[in-house]
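We emphasize that the prediction below concerns an isolated chain of 241 residues; any contacts that depend on oligomerization or on bound cofactors are therefore not represented. The input was used exactly as deposited, without trimming of termini.
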Amino acid sequence: MKDLMDLHTHTIASGHAYSTITEMIAAACDKGIKLLGITEHAPKMPGSCGILYFSNFRALPRERMGISVLFGVELNIMDYEGNVDLPDDLLREMDLVVASLHTPCIHPGTVEENTRAYLNAMKNPYINIIGHPDDKRYPVDYRAVVESAKEHGILLEVNNSSLKPTSFRGDPTERYTRMLELCREYGQPIIMDSDAHVDVAVGEHDCAKRLIEEIKFPEELIVNTSPDKVKKYLNCYKNKI
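Result of the prediction step, given as a token string:
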């Protein structure tokens, strides 16, 4: 299976990551990645960058070292109503937008509350990817999540960092298997991402690939295999195709 992109990564700007933009791009180039997304944590994540950082992406070149680089954000879903921590007028200018649940920003709720947080967030037209929907602390109704992603044209992520033995989110194998079987049923595309917080982890999708291969998930529903597959899901391309 071709694996040409990694759209969820972090640099030192996120506060708890360890490599620069240039180092992340160089690592992507070495790994054969053709499309790299740099998605810093939004401002409500302790230690991350402020709103001015996200307002100046026009200064950054989108082609470097022979690869395409997209700049965006990993939003924090702040409550069960799906509110996030950057305004829409800024999000519409982002190349891509990931939205996730993080314990510093939202207390884990019931299945119904956590699911409602995702469903309401997915109504935001500028959110492109739901990040790591696998955390044992945030149990959800995966059928409802997959149905909503399908309705709103949003990608669901299989997060390689979550699948590592060192993950603090708990072993997500069973949860991802459930989600992926529903994605197969609904024809809902997914994306593999590294969630890299250091350059050596860029493009690292081994754990995600292993799970996908074990359950024989259809390759046609994996957008990593072709930049053309992902374009209709990302803000920077939506008005150009």
